């Protein structure tokens, strides 16, 4: 295993400590519960947004805490849902009179932890709602899910809900927006290589030198099939066709297009992928109104990428364009 | 080779085309000369800034074009200096009455191309100055250099010069600032793995599974030595000691600290490295005033990282804090 790591058991806490040290004025790290929160949370004048999941998907979600985005994130260990009490303690710390919205990718372990934390918080008199994100079109059920998985599209739900909350929308309204964005967001990714969790010390699965995993999950879960590596353009075509035909996105639609790197793929390749996806969408008559290229939801050091489309209307486009400030985008 | 690539010969143009398609309102791509420029360049009221080098270091420099940063970037092919005429044609397109500053990492091929382009531009009556960046403390001379190499520290020179130019400073003043920042900036990196140039199709050098290259160059050039992989903390200590003792940075200094990923190392590991570097600097009595964690100057898909320190005074700190807007940081 070739990684910057000390004791693999401390990989997540050491990462979170580094994150807090790099952002001393804006973020606070609470080691007992693995949580990262805004230094100024809770803001009583807004709904608080919380997201959590296993670690290993950075910048999702611990590096997405800040004005216009999350109020707190509570990660578990690498690829493990956060324990219920981590979620519960996080909610307690950012509880606002306007309520708390939990944004959760649809995995069985995460659902359980967050639903139980919601019940505990309700009993404390905190108003909480939980929204599940399930944008991955690759498979219907998966290793860790009933129903579709939540992947890189979660960025758009966070961003739109974050903007609405910042503008003072109430909890039901922020929930409505999140549900609306999730309903028009679709993603599919592929792995060129496996990833290596620090505690395992070896690749999570075997992928021969000339094969890819089409439709891979962000924890290395199987996708649609193994196949031979081929040209970037042809890989993009398969990903894009799967995404486009699922909603479907049709000629005349205006969209946001995201090319998300899975961790080990450099930015140059992501822009090459973006160019081809852009051209193929234009050929389909789809208008690209917003573009996102980079790492938004990764899978440790996996080489690969995912494509996400969001169908925009004026409301969503306006929320996505709102200002936000998070560590990963700081100059 | 597991990459998103079509014909390897087209890797760079396809990447640049994707970059321009993702930023239609702000960037323009000129395929004949591989150049990316601001759509509103030249701005007659400011000095124009141009940087170029081989490709494969993204976001340096093609994704660093925008207000407060570069006016144009002219990359060569992967790890190859841009041809003189690419540089010359770039200068022509962003020539401002206030002059043009060329920011060049210190490599023999790049120096030649930019110095000849400067002469050609001078003959056309364009006022041009060229500043060389050489922040890498690892080796005195290297495979492609006489003197030290320019690596991730170039970001700070770009940023400070970009801010000064945006505020209307004249060419000599922007040059003075660039030289001043370069003089107080030091970097060293290490490779956990080699990188794979698309046209070669295989790793650029062999690095056994349990070894690292301490002091690696951003083109895979040898550093100080091969050694066994060890704990992150201990690797950080060696990098940081080499950087700190070179200037030297001393107790009471205020600095910017950058942890730069070399392409294949995920953000989580970079923050773990940041945390340790931060703590070791505090122990040395050095005050960290600004923090940078992410990818600034990569080496294709190489796993590894570099540490950069900049000694701040009020002038440099103010320029680094100025607003800027580049594709890689867009929401």
Automatic annotation (TrEMBL), chains A, B:
One of its GO terms (molecular function) is phosphoenolpyruvate-glycerone phosphotransferase activity. One of its GO terms (biological process) is glycerol catabolic process. Its EC number is 2.7.1.121. PROSITE patterns: DHAK (PS51481). This is Dihydroxyacetone kinase subunit DhaK. It holds the Pfam family Dak1. Residues 7-329 form the DhaK domain. InterPro entries: DhaK_1 (IPR012736), DhaK_dom (IPR004006), Dihydroxyacetone_Kinase (IPR050861). It comes from Streptomyces liangshanensis. It comes from the Bacteria. One of its GO terms (cellular component) is cytosol. Gene3D superfamilies: Dihydroxyacetone kinase, domain 1, Dihydroxyacetone kinase, domain 2. Keywords: ATP-binding, Kinase, Nucleotide-binding, Transferase. SUPFAM superfamilies: DAK1/DegV-like.
């Amino acid at each position: 295993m070739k990684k910057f790591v000390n004791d693999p058991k401390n990989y997540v806490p050491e990462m979170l400590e580094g994150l807090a040290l790099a952002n001393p004025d804006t973020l606070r790290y609470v080691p007992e519960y693995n949580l990262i929160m805004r230094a100024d949370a809770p803001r009583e004048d807004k709904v608080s947004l919380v997201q959590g999941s296993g670690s290993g998907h950075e910048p999702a979600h611990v590096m997405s805490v800040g004005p216009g985005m999350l109020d707190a994130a509570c990660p578990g260990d690498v690829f493990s849902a956060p324990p219920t009490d981590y979620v519960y303690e996080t909610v307690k710390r950012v509880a606002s009179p306007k309520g708390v919205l939990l944004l959760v990718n649809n995995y069985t372990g995460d659902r359980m932890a967050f639903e139980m934390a919601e019940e505990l918080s309700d009993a404390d008199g905190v108003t909480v709602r939980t929204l599940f994100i399930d944008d991955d079109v690759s498979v219907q059920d998966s290793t860790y899910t009933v129903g579709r998985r939540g992947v890189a599209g979660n960025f758009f739900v966070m961003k739109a809900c974050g903007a609405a909350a910042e503008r003072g929308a109430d909890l039901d309204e922020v929930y409505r927006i999140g549900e609306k964005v999730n309903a028009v967001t679709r993603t599919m990714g592929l792995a060129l290589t496996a990833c290596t969790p620090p505690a395992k010390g070896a690749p999570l699965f075997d992928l021969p030198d000339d094969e890819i995993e089409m439709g891979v999950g962000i924890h290395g879960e199987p996708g649609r099939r193994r196949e031979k590596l081929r040209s970037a353009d042809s890989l993009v075509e398969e990903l894009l066709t799967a995404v486009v035909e699922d909603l479907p996105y049709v000629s005349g639609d205006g969209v946001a297009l995201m090319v998300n790197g899975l961790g080990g793929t450099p930015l140059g390749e992501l822009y090459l992928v973006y160019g081809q996806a852009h051209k193929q969408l234009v050929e389909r008559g789809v208008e690209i109104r917003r573009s996102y290229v980079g790492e938004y939801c990764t899978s440790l050091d996996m080489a690969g990428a995912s494509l996400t489309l969001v169908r925009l209307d004026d409301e969503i486009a306006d929320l996505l364009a709102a200002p936000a400030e998070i560590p990963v985008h700081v100059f």
